[in-house]
């Protein structure tokens, strides 16, 4: 691939971003480092959730608007197990994952399987409906107030390199994200089901002719998406408490996915990290210089719009992909 | 050929899409280790017929019986597991995967180890199983002479090689019946000869029953045991290649309504021969 005039806007964007990143460290190194690390940790979570989103998209071409509600449901279920049933964290977490596996499969079998063969846009509408439904259901069951998790780690922050306080939950989530990512890489490269899923993503008809049940593949992809999102939901819940705010992660996934490319698993992770870092930067410049307030919330969506304008297929996406 | 119960029976199959009759009352059977060809003009319903066998389409009427078992309502993946493999008219390889991975996808339904037993790689027999599968895959690769590209991305290969990899993938599911949809379309003479040889060996050495759609009459008449001709979804002839070639309906289907002209032409050449 050679450098053409079409690449110029994207190059300018990259240079500007890097420049802003470096400049941040000149202005206030400690705060910059802290926000960058926090940004990367959150970004890893975005990456993991975005990966689930891409997984479903690749397997079945469905844009899942209910992705954020997976986080919400997972976090609430875990919270319920820990506070109402007083389970220790390990068991509560494990049961949450088991529950979410079944939840994902059930959702696919009951709601989405009958939609196979219907126009994709109808299926996407169904996911929007699911999103609203679960939002309301969770509010009805658990109330509208933020509920904190019981303390899980003995110390709530650790000092990184002796100077930088980082939340223990964030470290936990970083390790978890890395494990999930490596697990995914292994799964797709070496496992039988992973290979079957790649085959299905490529061509459902051919996959079937080779003895792969696409119904099973779809169910598994939804189950994985539900479980992994719940992981993210619980870790965020530990830090910020559980509330319907969590489902906003489902929206944050869009910038990450658009930056990375809608059909690239690797791209989604990198996109997530970029968006996380970008939020850190936005927060830095907002508090140090600009004083707009809340730039952190909107910055990812500015990038979403810019990327769509100058590089619509993202960093790693297939060029001729159909946009929904 | 001691066993004469058919591998595949097509029992009065009709297929309609709305008002269009893709297939009308087609009936044939394929015997074990037979090389059976389906020919016909464009749009005659050949691929629809193949899709009815592989499960892509469900016949509107009639039954598809495979090894004595009615599979009309079974899903395509079930049928693949039962032993029906197929290739596609348009290349349908997984372009971003290596040749080896492409073929390994075909082993999917034969792999028994799951996540748990796979984690106990050496103890649970997963290693043994994998080695065994790799050996089978290597056999297929050797047979089709694609050793030199096994690590290459499928999307980067030449057309002829891709067709071969696709055949390898269909063979990997160890089917009893293999459906080939125009295996030689778009090939040059040399590639066609290679492919014809592979198909014959597949049939004779590997003992697979083959149902093939092909446009190259020379190859079809050469290697097929029996031939069926479809025209506008109707079965107009079935039998030995020479009988089919001599069939008047077939000539008409292929040469159109101008057959009087052809007949005249033949008479004339005949006369010429007699003169000589």
Structure commentary:
The complex is a heterodimer of chains A (324) and B (276). The radius of gyration of chain A is 20 Å and the shape is globular. In chain A, a hairpin with a 3-residue loop joins strand 1 and strand 2. With 324 residues, chain A is an all-alpha fold. The model of chain A has no long low-confidence stretch (mean pLDDT 82). A two-stranded antiparallel ribbon of chain A has the order 1-2. Chain A is built from 12 helices and 2 strands. The relative contact order of chain A is 0.19. In chain A, helix 2 packs antiparallel against helix 11. With 276 residues, chain B is α/β, with parallel strands linked by helices. Chain B has 2 domains: 185 residues, P-loop containing nucleotide triphosphate hydrolases (Rossmann fold); 83 residues, no CATH class. A 6-stranded mixed beta sheet of chain B has the order 6-7-8-3-9-10, sandwiched between helices. Chain B has a 4-stranded antiparallel beta sheet with strand order 2-1-4-5, with helices on one face.
The CATH architecture of chain A: Orthogonal Bundle
Strand content of chain A: under 5%
Largest sheet of chain A: 2 strands, antiparallel
Low-confidence stretches of chain B: none
CATH superfamily of the largest domain in chain B: P-loop containing nucleotide triphosphate hydrolases
Shape of chain B: globular
Overall pLDDT score of chain A: 82
Instruction: Return the domain count of chain A.
Output: 1
Low-confidence stretches of chain A: none
CATH structural fold name of chain A: ABC transporter involved in vitamin B12 uptake, BtuC
Order of helices and strands of chain A: HHHHHEEHHHHHHH
Main interface: chain pair and counts = A-B, 19 and 31 residues
Major sheet details of chain B: 6 strands, mixed
- Ends apart, CA distance between termini of chain A: 27 Å
* Proportion of residues in helical segments of chain A: over 70%
> What's the total number of strands of chain B?
10
Q: What is the CATH architecture assignment of the largest domain in chain B?
A: 3-Layer(aba) Sandwich
């Amino acid at each position: 691939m050679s450098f053409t005039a079409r690449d110029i806007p994207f190059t300018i964007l990259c240079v500007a971003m890097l420049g802003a990143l470096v400049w941040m460290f000149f202005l206030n190194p400690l705060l910059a480092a802290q926000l960058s690390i926090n940004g990367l940790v959150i970004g890893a979570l975005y990456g993991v959730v975005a990966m689930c989103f891409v997984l479903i998209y690749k397997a079945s071409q469905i844009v899942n608007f209910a992705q954020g509600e997976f986080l919400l449901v997972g976090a609430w279920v875990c919270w319920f197990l820990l506070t109402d049933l007083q389970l220790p964290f390990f068991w509560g977490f494990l049961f949450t994952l088991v529950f979410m596996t079944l939840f994902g499969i059930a959702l696919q079998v009951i709601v989405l399987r009958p939609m196979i063969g219907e126009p994709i846009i109808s299926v996407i509408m169904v996911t929007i409906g699911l999103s609203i439904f679960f939002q309301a259901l969770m509010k009805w069951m658990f109330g509208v107030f933020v509920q904190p998790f019981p303390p899980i780690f003995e110390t709530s922050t650790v000092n990184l390199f002796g100077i930088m306080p980082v939340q223990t939950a964030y470290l936990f989530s970083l390790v978890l994200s890395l494990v999930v990512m490596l697990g995914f890489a292994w799964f797709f490269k070496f496992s039988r089901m992973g290979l079957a899923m790649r085959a299905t993503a490529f061509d459902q008809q051919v996959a079937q002719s080779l003895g792969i049940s696409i119904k099973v593949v779809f169910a598994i992809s939804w189950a994985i998406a539900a479980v992994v999102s719940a992981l993210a939901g619980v870790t965020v819940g530990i830090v910020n408490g559980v509330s319907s705010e969590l489902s906003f992660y489902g929206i944050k996934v869009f910038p990450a996915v658009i930056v990375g490319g809608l059909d690239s698993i690797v791209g989604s992770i990198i996109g997530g990290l970029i968006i996380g870092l970008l939020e850190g930067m936005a927060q830095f410049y907002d508090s140090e210089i600009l004083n707009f307030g809340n730039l952190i919330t909107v910055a990812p969506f500015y990038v979403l719009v810019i990327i769509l304008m100058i590089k619509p297929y993202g960093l790693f996406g297939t060029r001729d992909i159909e946009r929904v | 050929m001691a066993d004469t119960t058919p591998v595949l029976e097509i029992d009065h199959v009709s297929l309609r899409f709305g008002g269009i009759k893709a297939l009308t009352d087609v009936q044939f059977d394929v015997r074990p280790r037979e090389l059976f060809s389906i020919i016909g003009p464009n749009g005659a319903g050949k691929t629809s017929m193949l899709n009815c066998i592989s499960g892509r389409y469900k016949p509107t009427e009639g039954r598809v019986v495979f090894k004595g078992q009615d599979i009309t309502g079974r899903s395509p993946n079930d049928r693949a597991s039962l032993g029906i493999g197929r290739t596609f008219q348009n290349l349908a390889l997984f372009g971003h995967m290596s040749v080896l991975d492409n073929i390994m996808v075909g082993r999917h339904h034969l792999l028994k180890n799951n996540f748990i037993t796979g984690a106990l790689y050496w103890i649970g027999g997963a290693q043994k199983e994998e080695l065994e599968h790799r050996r089978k895959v290597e056999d297929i690769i050797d047979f089709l002479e694609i050793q030199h590209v096994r690590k290459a991305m499928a999307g980067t290969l030449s057309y002829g090689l891709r067709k071969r990899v696709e055949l390898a993938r269909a063979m990997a599911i160890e089917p009893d019946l293999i459906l080939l949809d125009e295996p030689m379309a778009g090939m040059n003479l040399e590639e066609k000869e290679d492919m014809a040889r592979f198909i014959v060996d597949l049939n004779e050495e590997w003992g697979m029953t083959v149902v093939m759609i092909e446009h190259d009459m020379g190859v079809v008449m050469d290697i097929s045991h029996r031939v069926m001709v479809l025209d506008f979804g109707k079965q107009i002839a079935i039998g030995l290649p020479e009988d089919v070639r001599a069939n008047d309906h077939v000539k008409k289907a292929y040469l159109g309504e101008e057959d009087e002209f052809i007949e005249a032409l033949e008479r004339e050449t005949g006369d010429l021969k007699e003169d000589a």
